[in-house]
Amino acid sequence: MVNRYVRISMQVFVLVLFSCQNKIESQSTEWETITKEFIKDYKKLDLPGLELSFVENLKNIRDKKSVQNQEKVFISLEKALHKIDKNQLSDRDKLDYEVLLYECELNRERIIIEKKWLNAIRDSIPTTKIFDVPNGKDWYAYFLKKWVDKDATPDQIYALGVKEIEKVTSKIKEIQIKSGMDSLDFSRHIKDSIFFYSNVEMVQKRFLQIRETVADKLPEIFPFTDSVPEVKIKRGTNKNLSQVPGFYTNGTFYYNYFNSSFNKRQVGWLYIHEGMPGHHYQVMAETLLHRSDVQKMFRYRGVGEGWAAYVEEIGNEIGAYQNIYDELGKWEWDIIRSVRVALDVGLNYYGWSDQKALQFWQKYIKGQDDIAFREIARMKRWPVQVITYKYGSNKILQWKSQLEKNQNFNLREFHKNILKNGLLPYSILESQLGL
Predict the structure, then answer these.
(1) What does the radius of gyration of the chain's CA atoms come to, in whole angstroms?
(2) How far is 60 from 380, CA to CA, in rounded Å?
């Protein structure tokens, strides 16, 4: 009798196992069909990429028929996704699932605002700032999600800016105290000629030295470094880009030296932001990684700036800051970034005037009104982009702080887990880290 029950139980077990296997295989086939169909339909839509200029983004809005077609594609995809049991997918397919769901949500929101735009009667596109555009606050909230993350809201971002201003101001004060000088003497001291290079040869030499110093430290805490080619370092020649201290493109870090001097305090943070382990490292590492067809369709530009700003936070650990003044250079630039976060929301969502924005700037940054005028104009033309630096670095630092509580925390593994799937939205990346 016992043997009979055992045989029956085994038969039931085999039937259940066979049924589960069929279900998994059926869902796998269904998932493959969904992704193939969506990739085909999405390519047909030929959607324009995200531009820096809000005016250009509005000019790129398609006609009503095209927008209605886009809506059908994303509604169809969303319905198909909700029929899938995500837990039955492989880890790689789960990631694709999250990316597609994320894109559905963002595109559905965009389409709602575009339909309002197409139904409105207007003579032209206001070019002053996005706040002045019909439904401007809705547009700003959307661009914030597109540049930063779908969970970001203007009020949260403004609060982040204020918090970061307090943090950076405190860091600068700490360095002033370490110097042994009072605030007035310290302010005078950092303007002394000893903090400036007077010829381009000295600047080039110093950047090469920093590259060598940092290179020795990186393999300990960053993966893939043995496969990343050395970044080239050259003097920039494009005067249209002279407003920034440097930039990275196509394997080369360019520093801008158009005046008679170059601030020594910019060398450390600027190199690691643009070179290794910043933009050059992240871009090159991404070429080494396998990315699915779904992931190749989308690129989250703001995440790259967040990563590059994050590595500045660990400049001491990787040898980029060799004294308190090297570190000060990072905070001097970071106070500008932090003020810009609050200003961007103020100008483009709260509707601040240029004068109110300037007064806010002057409260925290003294003697740099020329930069203020430039940055205010930039934020009005390119809403949200300046927020990407601080939002991203703050997110990664939060994750690092949480995970460090685990005794088995490994910084190199942490960096690998952030980078291994290429640039992902922060809300998806956070779930990938198990947070």
Answers:
(1) 25
(2) 18
